[in-house]
Design goal:
Elements (H helix, E strand, L loop, with lengths): L3 E19 L5 E21 L4 E5 L11 H12 L5 E7 L10 H16 L6 H11 L3 H6 L2 E5 L4 E4 L7 E6 L6 H9 L9 H10 L2 H6 L2 E2 L2 H7 L2 H11 L4 E4 L6 E5 L2 H14 L4 E5 L10
Parallel strand pairs: 1-8, 3-4
Antiparallel strand pairs: 1-2, 2-4, 2-5, 5-6, 7-10, 7-11, 9-10
Helix pairs in contact: 1-2, 2-3, 9-10
Length: 294
């Protein structure tokens, strides 16, 4: 049996994000279309002769103990499966941190998946997703990946037709967004704009990229954009450079643009980067092939 496994932990964007209510326990009910993209962290899991779990990252400001969700994932499986011994985890971050792209959740998902493979635990995807939900609402989706409708608090997942091929420009401005504050501010709005999620599902079935882009919407923009107007400026720059549509992902502050032409996407990348409005700018594509290795 192997002693080490290397995994790609994929980022996600939200093609549509709606909030439909609040549960009694304070969790918000959502209805959103999730899409993995080919932007990823490298996660390496290595067996160790020591009993402890150690974690290293390439970013010195990230926690490397139980305050890191990837560490929590390893601890969670280790508690239930005594055959898991000592572990050395190494995470090379490429996904922007605190960006609304599930960077932490996807690392945790990769650890769950990797430990299952490395130690031959034989856990099904649904069982891994049960573990994932204990860690965070996005983790089950990060295990499923592809194009999916997420409901409930994000844990009820339904596979959808794949996103049509295109080029996706990612730009994260150097600002921090409090997800808790965003949702609290949304609760104070009387009539926030609700995106047409069902129309997007039909667009995916028909593989109509232009219609899909036209129906994109994120109800959280109504509160995050006024707090951080640079988000709107990035969207405008993407549209000026030929994006079919541009929108904030999750609670922000990352903006993504959909381009049908690769050249236009790279031209927009160069303009945004030279403007200084965003430090982390990438061109990528949807990740839809289920048979690909992690």
């Amino acid at each position: 049996m192997a002693n080490v496994i290397h995994l790609k932990a994929l980022a996600k964007i939200n093609l549509g994000l709606d909030v439909t209510g609040v549960r009694e326990d304070g969790y918000h009910m959502v209805r959103m279309i999730m899409q993995t993209i080919d932007l990823f962290d490298w996660v390496t899991i290595r067996k160790s002769k020591q009993e402890a779990i150690t974690l290293r990252t390439n970013l010195n400001f990230l926690p490397t103990d139980e305050h890191n969700i990837a560490y929590q994932a390893a601890l969670l499986l280790k508690q239930d499966h005594p055959q898991i011994g000592g572990l050395e985890l190494n995470i090379h971050k490429c996904i922007p941190v605190a960006a609304g792209m599930a960077g932490g959740s996807t690392d945790a998902a990769a650890v769950l998946y990797g430990l299952n493979k490395l130690f031959g635990l034989g856990l099904s995807l649904s069982k891994l997703m049960e573990y994932g939900l204990k860690l965070g609402a996005d983790v089950p989706y990060c295990l499923l990946r592809g194009t999916a409708l997420a409901e409930g608090i994000g844990e009820k997942l339904t596979r959808l037709a794949p996103m049509p091929d295109c080029h996706i420009l990612i730009a994260k401005p150097p600002v921090s967004v409090s997800t808790k504050l965003v949702y609290q501010s949304l609760d104070a709005l009387e009539q926030p704009p609700h995106p047409p999620i069902d129309a997007q599902i039909r667009d995916l079935e028909e593989q109509d990229l232009c219609s899909l882009a036209g129906h994109m919407g994120n109800v959280l923009e109504s509160v995050t954009v006024p707090m951080h107007p640079e988000i709107e400026r990035i969207k405008e720059m993407m549209m000026e450079q030929g994006a079919i549509a541009a929108m904030m992902s999750g609670s922000g502050p990352t903006v993504f643009g959909i381009f049908s032409e690769e050249g236009r996407a790279y031209e927009a990348k160069a303009r945004i980067r030279s403007s200084g409005i965003a430090r982390q700018v990438y061109v990528t594509k949807p990740y839809n092939i289920k048979e690909k290795n992690r």
